[in-house]
Design a protein that fits this description.
The chain has eight helices and nine strands. With about 250 residues, the chain is an alpha/beta fold. The strands form two sheets. It has a seven-stranded mixed beta sheet with strand order 5-4-3-6-7-8-9. A two-stranded antiparallel sheet has the order 1-2. A hairpin with a 2-residue loop joins β1 and β2. The chain is globular and about 50 Å long. The chain starts with a helix and ends in an 11-residue tail after the last strand.
Length: about 250
């Protein structure tokens, strides 16, 4: 049993143990009937090939590459995508959302310069894959999802015990999470029509925000640094294509 299978087993066991009585038996039945998630030698080999491809595309941050090599991306996708989960492309996850292309995940994370124990606010939880990469790198992650159906899936996140530093919230990304500010880093994983002012307020001085900005088919990736006077230093990078960042909560 490898590390990830250990966490899967522990999560299922503790979830069942909390039920008690008759529900315990039914919970175990559900656990046994649920398709087993496995991280096979084939998956690991495909993941190593993906990491090599990311290197060839210009990703140089070894901490980012190591985190992505440690995480079974196929666990975050429908089983129908199991054989192609390590192709460098996005896949649908429902509600008009996608799990980002691995290169995009690596690119944004590299720009963010994530440090251990830093507070990171992520806007757009989606499949939870990007959140998990940040948590694997040792950050304290606060992630917001506006789609209620996607957020409800987070309650069954299989690696809760492995990543107690990862917290999920249902809310409007434009509002952020002021209760936990200031943040060392902020990552937006949807196309923002403008730089959200409330998120700038929640970023600490010297902190970084990485986001794709524009309302067209393609968006320019920006990295913003908050200066002492509250202004922003802007750096522009490659163009990408993201789903739009929307206001409000979708129940």
């Amino acid at each position: 049993m490898n590390m990830w299978e250990n966490y899967l087993f522990d999560f299922s066991f503790h979830s069942c143990r909390k039920q008690g009585g008759r529900q315990l038996g039914s919970s175990i039945f559900v656990m046994l009937m649920k398709p087993k998630l496995e991280d096979t030698y084939q998956h690991k080999g495909l993941r190593r090939q993906l990491i090599q491809l990311l290197r060839e595309k210009g990703i140089t941050d070894e901490a980012v590459l190591e985190a992505m090599n440690n995480i079974p991306r196929h666990f975050f996708l429908d089983s129908a995508f199991d054989k192609i989960a390590y192709e460098d492309r996005a896949f649908p996850i429902g509600e008009g959302q996608t799990i980002s292309q691995p290169y995009t995940v690596a690119y944004q994370t590299q720009l963010l310069k994530v440090g251990k124990m830093e507070k990171v606010l992520e806007i757009g939880t989606g499949s939870m894959y990007q959140s998990t990469v940040l948590a694997e790198m040792g950050a304290k992650v606060y992630t917001i999802e506006r789609q209620k159906k996607l957020y409800d899936q987070h309650s069954s996140y299989m690696f809760k015990m492995k990543y107690p530093n990862l917290k999920f919230f249902f809310g409007d990304g434009f509002e952020g999470l002021p209760a936990f500010q200031p943040y060392d880093k902020i990552l937006i994983t949807a196309a923002a029509p403008f730089i959200p002012p409330k998120l700038v307020q929640q970023l600490k001085v010297g902190g970084l925000m990485v986001l794709p900005v524009d309302e067209g088919d393609n968006q320019r990736m920006l990295r913003l640094t908050k200066l002492e006077d509250g202004s922003l230093q802007e750096e522009a990078f490659e163009e990408f294509s993201f789903v739009p960042m929307l206001t409000g909560k979708n129940r």
